[in-house]
Design a protein that fits this description.
The protein is mainly alpha-helical. It is built from 7 helices and no strands. The protein has a single domain, classed as Four Helix Bundle (Hemerythrin (Met), subunit A).
């Protein structure tokens, strides 16, 4: 039943979202996202190591986070697929660069989403704890 709900939510979200969510965020949030985007663009200028580097970073983060190891991988996969399958249209960008998909912007929207907030709260039993045991 849970898989059905996730797939249903995925389909509903596909039908609704056709534009980025950044306009609804504050200037400071968008500015920080812009700096992150510039940093990633510079760091991965040659592209071929981006996936390996981000995968290694994820592995490190997994070691420092306690969460539901059984349910989380599938739920995260569905959430990522839901956001990456969005169709963000920008005729100006498309006229300059064919095939642009705005995947980074989709990932930022996922990062800032209520969907991720709800998933994180469901998967993490003690969200304020840290790997070193201190509460921030």
């Amino acid at each position: 039943m849970r898989n059905f709900k996730l797939k249903f939510l995925f389909c509903v979200m596909l039908l609704k979202i056709t534009s980025p969510e950044a306009p609804r965020r504050t200037f400071i949030q968008n500015y920080k996202d812009m700096v992150l985007g510039n940093c990633l663009a510079k760091a991965y200028l040659n592209g071929e190591i981006a996936s390996m580097d981000s995968g290694s970073s994820v592995s490190g983060l997994e070691e420092w986070t306690y969460y539901d190891l059984e349910e989380s991988p599938q739920a995260v996969h569905h959430l990522i697929e839901m956001y990456l399958s969005r169709n963000y249209l920008n005729p100006l960008a498309e006229s300059e660069m064919k095939g642009v998909k705005f995947d980074f912007l989709k990932c930022l929207d996922l990062y800032h989403s209520e969907d991720l907030e709800k998933l994180a709260k469901r998967m993490i039993e003690h969200p304020q704890d840290t790997f070193r045991g201190t509460v921030l």
